[in-house]
Amino acid sequence: ERVMGGGPLSLVLGGLGVLLLFRMVRRLRPGARVRDSVVVITGASSGLGRECARVFHAAGARLVLCGRHAGRLQETVEELNEAAGRGHTQTHPPSTVTFDLSEAGAVERAAEEILRLHGNVDVLINNAGISYRGNILETDLSVQRAVMDTNYFGPVALTQALLPSMVRRRSGHVVVISSIQGRIAIPHRSAYAASKHATQAYFDCLRAEVERYGLEVSVVSPGYIRTNLSRNALTGDGSQYGVLDRTTAMGRDPADVARAVLEAVRRRSKDVLLAGLLATVALYLRTLCPALFFKVMAMRARSTLVCLMSRSNVHAPLTVFCGAV
Ligand SMILES: NC(=O)C1=CN([C@@H]2O[C@H](COP(=O)(O)OP(=O)(O)OC[C@H]3O[C@@H](n4cnc5c(N)ncnc54)[C@H](OP(=O)(O)O)[C@@H]3O)[C@@H](O)[C@H]2O)C=CC1
Ligand SMILES: CCCCCCCCCCCCCCCC(=O)OCC(=O)COP(=O)(O)O
Question: Got a GO cellular component term for this one (predicted)?
């Protein structure tokens, strides 16, 4: 036994060594090429999508920018073209495709248009999304469906429409922007958290199924980002929430998150978690001590209901403690 050096400690150390070696070997792989590749970004008219457009454009990608409003997409294009005039690196003028992700027929037509533009897609970034603020008891079923249509069925439909051409070429990378709320469910976000949990599950299945064709799938799960997500969120009756929540205003710089998305594509990362300390604690708590996690969430539910009803972004002290991170 002594010669073998067995025992729990050496087993753990051996395991850690193998893990480290595995990570080092992965890092030695040459990064995926972004320059000249065709990159489709949904929700490119604002927030994280617009920042992704900036970083992938600067990296020399051929962009196809998607959104519901042609005018807003054009603003992004003009900004990128101006930046191209100032820069020294070779960039490509972006194209745009306008469609609503929640309309199944529109998504199929959009996929055909995207393929007509460039013949193929190298990277699809499913970024577009909408959030929700509401009490389940007072939420129309139509709102639960609307959030699911945009955040889950939309990306699924677009991915499935573009997948056959990727499989034929034995090449392609599908990225989806999920959320920490794809891993943990917090109160008054039922529609949003459910859509992100479904997203995580679908794209995890997809990754396993398309590996044999050489395709890559990355799920990126950020914490709060400084964008208009909370302002654009739907409430239980389908109206717009319209408030910039404190948590959103204090979130990460979307440019930093966009750089992390570029890095995920270059490194072919399978799963990227961009969690702060409290969110990380919450993730561990949910896994290792669910009873305590559920207790904390119930406390949070009581506290956030007050600021939800008044559409106030001033959180009660209990909420600040329980996770207004
Ligand atoms: N901000 C945050 O705190 C976090 C955001 N995320 C995720 O990041 C992603 C981007 O959101 P973010 O930039 O923050 O929010 P924004 O509200 O700024 O951007 C959302 C984008 O999605 C597009 N969009 C919304 N609904 C539809 C639709 N039905 N069809 C097509 N496009 C649509 C919007 O385009 P337009 O209205 O012009 O059509 C807009 O460009 C989302 O998936 C979100 O869940 C994840 C974690 C944290
Ligand atoms: C006794 C131990 C106490 C430990 C307390 C830990 C509990 C902390 C709860 C933290 C919850 C973190 C939630 C993070 C949510 C998040 O980052 O979501 C990102 C989004 O997608 C934001 O969308 P939204 O529409 O909700 O703004």
Answer: membrane
Q: Can you list the domains of the chain with their CATH numbers?
A: 24-275 (3.40.50.720), 277-325 (no CATH)
Reported ipTM: 0.98
Burial of 73-105, coded b for 16+ CB within 10 Å and e otherwise, reads: beebbeebeeebeeeeeebbebbbbbbbbbbee
Confidence bin at 323 (pLDDT 50/70/90): very low
Evaluate if residue 321 carries a pLDDT over 60: no
**Ligand in nearest proximity to the CA of 189:** 2
Residue 225, ligand 2, Cβ within 6 A: no
How sure is the predictor about 282, in pLDDT bands with cuts at 50, 70 and 90?
Answer: very high
Confidence of residue 316 (pLDDT cuts 50, 70, 90): very low
Please report the atom of ligand 2 found closest to the CA of residue 133.
25
Please give the distance, rounded to the nearest whole angstrom, from the Cα atom of residue 281 to the centre of ligand 2.
Answer: 10
The residue written with tokens 């709060």 in the block is 224
d(CA 55, CA 83): 11
Q: Does the C-beta of 279 come closer than 6 Å to ligand 2?
A: yes
pLDDT at 216 over 90: yes
- Any ligand 1 atom below 6 A from CB of 229: yes
* Cα→Cα distances 163→98, 123, 193, Å: 20, 11, 26
Q: Which of 24-33, 264-273, 275-284 has the lowest mean pLDDT?
A: 24-33
105: CA distance to ligand 2 center in Å?
35
